[in-house]
Amino acid sequence: QVQLQESGPGLVKPSETLSLTCTVSGGSISSYYWSWIRQPPGKGLEWIGYIYYSGSTNYNPSLKSRVTISVDTSKNQFSLKLSSVTAADTAVYYCARGSGYCTNGVCTMGFDPWGQGTLVTVSS
Amino acid sequence: EIVLTQSPGTLSLSPGERATLSCRASQSVSSSYLAWYQQKPGQAPRLLIYGASSRATGIPDRFSGSGSGTDFTLTISRLEPEDFAVYYCQQYGSSPFTFGGGTKVEIK
Question: I need a surface site. Which of A16, A29, B11, B87 has the fewest CB within 10 A?
Fold first, then answer.
């Protein structure tokens, strides 16, 4: 079965760029939409954006000016870059797959599976 | 952007009781693309329900979803000890995809 694993630095300085990678195992990254979601400590979930295996992307307007999501099909990985971070970007970052039949980024069966998440703290 | 409002914020119940969680959308959710997730402390969310009423693979039948348009409900028919957690609704039919603020189901 497909498994996702986030990786990257756990501590980032203010104004710098947060960089995370999600590695997909047990299945191909092709033909699916892949999302990043974050959750500040003790708070709710926020969708950051998605990428299709072909490279097309869609970002949450609230973060669009600072977000870049890319894909490397040869490594079965996709990545997140968030620039100019502040303490407000401190969160657990999750990657997840769009499930079911997908058209233009909308997948019929929600987000499944998810990675276990990785905590990124923004602090000097 | 579709805003999802979940109520109540906290539900205090005993094992064996029925739980009813509400999710209200600020505008109609496209094609009932409404999901429910369960999250336990230190864990990633787990998909329970998609398409408003379809159970995900491996989800027990005590979990059921209903609703359409702007009003959706997650029902847990008889709470098991492992069901005490936070539950989130999500709409994934209209970008940006959004989540509700969550309902915590706690042991009374």
Answer: A16
10 Å Cβ neighbour count for A106?
18
Report the gap between the CA of A50 and the closest CA in chain B (Å). 10
First-to-last alpha carbon distance for chain B, in angstroms, is: 35
**Interchain contact, A110 vs B92, CB within 8 Å:** yes
A98 vs B contacts (CB less than 8 Å): 92
B101 to chain A: which residues are within 8 Å by CB?
44
Any chain A CB within 8 A of the CB of B54? Answer: yes
Q: Which residue of A has its CA nearest to B41?
A: A42
Question: Per-residue b/e over A3-30, b at no fewer than 16 CB within 10 Å?
Answer: ebebeeeeebeeeeebbbbbbbeeeebe
Q: Average pLDDT, stretch A14-43?
A: 96
Average pLDDT of span B35-40: 98
Q: Identify the pLDDT of residue A31.
A: 86
Angle at A39 between CA A36 and CA A43, to 5 degrees: 155
Q: What average pLDDT does this structure show over A85-103?
A: 94
Residue B59 CA: distances (Å) to CA of A15, A99, A117, B83: 43, 16, 22, 11
The type of residue at A87 is A
